[in-house]
Amino acid sequence: MPGTLANIAPWILTVAATTINRDFVFEFVLGDSRVIKGGGIHFGNLQKDPIYPLIYGMDAKSSGEGFVTYDDDDDDDDARYVQLTCPCLRLVLQVFFPDHFPEIVRCKPPALDRNKIRGKIVVCENFDNQYKVKERLKGVTSHGGIGIVLIDDDAHAVASTYGTSPISIITEDDATELLLYICSSTNPVATILPTVTVTQYEPAPIVAAFLSREFVGYLAFQYWVFPQPDIAAPGVDILAAWPANDTSEALKNKDPPLFYLLSGTSMSCPHIAGIAAAVNADRISDMNYPSIAVSNIKGKESRRVVRTATNVGVYEETVYTATVEVPPRWEVKVIPQKLQFTKENKKLSYEVTFTSETSPEEDVFASITWTNG
Questions:
Q1: Which of 8, 135, 281, 356 lies 20 to 30 Å from 312, alpha-carbon distance?
Q2: Predicted pLDDT at 76
Q3: What is the span of the domain harbouring residue 221?
Q4: How far apart are CA 125 and CA 103, in angstroms?
Q5: Closest by Cα among 290, 299, 279, 298 to 352
Q6: What keywords were assigned to this record (predicted)?
Q7: What is the maximum span of the chain, computed from C-alpha positions, in angstroms?
């Protein structure tokens, strides 16, 4: 059965990631003074005035690049070739030929003409995720370009860092405005201003764009329930600790950063875990963990622990029997040894007593297994 997550055991908490009321934006200023808000973090030093020539990726093609092929059947005879020489055509062709855009609009280095992009800001597309944003940026700057504008809704959703190379990541909606400007201008120019931090950003929090959503309904003639997480916490553009010896993210002539912006449920889960730990700091021993740990047992001293089990199995009325495996010189008793669940009684408690013949000198492990087979 398809699904996005599973939450079988009652002690498992599934956590989603959300944005916070802080954002990182910068202004992409066009030659006609229009401003497009871009995403991403960079520390470029371009002039504030829009004086840098703009070029669409297709117009920067090297010899032999830049054709979109379309064939409406399996015959090669009537294949039609459309050459993109103006970004305006892109607005139309993307609707009819979404899977046939050439490598050049993705700004892959072999397809770029150095002479055409030198000293310019190159507008690039992202129709797949196989070519990383940083690789596109490096490809353009290594060929003489001064920066890129990347049209990518997904990359715009999180604030990745790109060093000192100017980059502006814009949405598809803003791309329409940009491409129309390039088409209508005989000398399209722009500039990319440095990133600034925006506080009290709204709307926030919202569920991260990279997460799946709950779906309940019919799919492929069957009724499906794709569950949603139990809780959500900050998980987008979180300032997290970073290895001090990792030079891959260090700016030129700068020490490696001690913190880095990261996104994902690996950021949101620690928020929830930290809150839970703080709330239960004074009563950890009373928490109903599926695992049990006892310490500082001396001589023939005994320790008693109580746990509550929840029946999450298929059968509502069933009996579970405890099986205990213990190391030598230890005694573990489970009372009662059987738990009889009913429709009305899905939670039952049991007691575990640990007794050692001598004071243990090292950690030892045992197990209690409840089975209804």
A1: 281
A2: 43
A3: 202-278
A4: 9
A5: 290
A6: Hydrolase, Protease, Serine protease, Signal
A7: 91
Q: Are residues 242 and 149 in the same domain?
A: no
- Report the range of poorest mean pLDDT among 17-26, 78-87, 142-151, 216-225: 78-87
Q: Which amino acid is at 197?
A: T
Measured between alpha carbons, how far is 263 from 235 in angstroms, rounded to an integer?
5
* Separation between Cα atoms, residue 60 and residue 42, nearest integer Å: 24
Q: DSSP letters of 35-77?
A: EEEEESB------SS--EEEEEGGGGBPTT--EEEE-SSS-ST
Closest alpha carbon to 207 in 171, 236, 240, 237: 236
In a domain, 10, yes or no: no
* 273-312 confidence digits (pLDDT tens): 998 888 777 655 556 777 888 888 887 888 899 999 888 8
Based on the domain organization, do 266 and 291 belong to the same domain? no
235-248 residue pLDDT tens: 999 999 999 888 88
Q: Which of 228, 246, 278 is the last residue of a domain?
A: 278
C-beta atoms surrounding 302 within 10 Å: 12
CATH number of the CATH domain containing 149 = 3.50.30.30
Residue 120 burial (10 A CB sphere; 0-12, 13-18, 19+): buried
The Cα–Cα gap between 44 and 164 comes to 5
